[in-house]
Design goal:
Secreted protein, single chain, 84% helix, mainly alpha, elongated, 58 residues, 0% strand
């Protein structure tokens, strides 16, 4: 029985993330902070866009 490629890819990503966390926790924390900043910036941009639309797109 063959293992699907998605499952292998997911396991590889999980192993890589655990490796980074274990070998260099400070860098892993930086990556998490960068990710959350990106999500925050995207949410702010969507909020500004929706406000612009609600104000009549002027």
């Amino acid at each position: 029985m063959a293992v699907p490629g998605k499952k292998i890819g997911l396991y590889a990503v999980v192993v890589f993330v655990l490796y980074v966390i274990i070998t260099n926790p400070a860098r892993a924390a930086d990556y998490v902070q960068i990710g959350f900043e990106g999500i925050s910036n995207a949410a702010k941009a969507i909020g500004h866009f929706m406000t612009w639309i609600a104000n009549g797109a002027q």
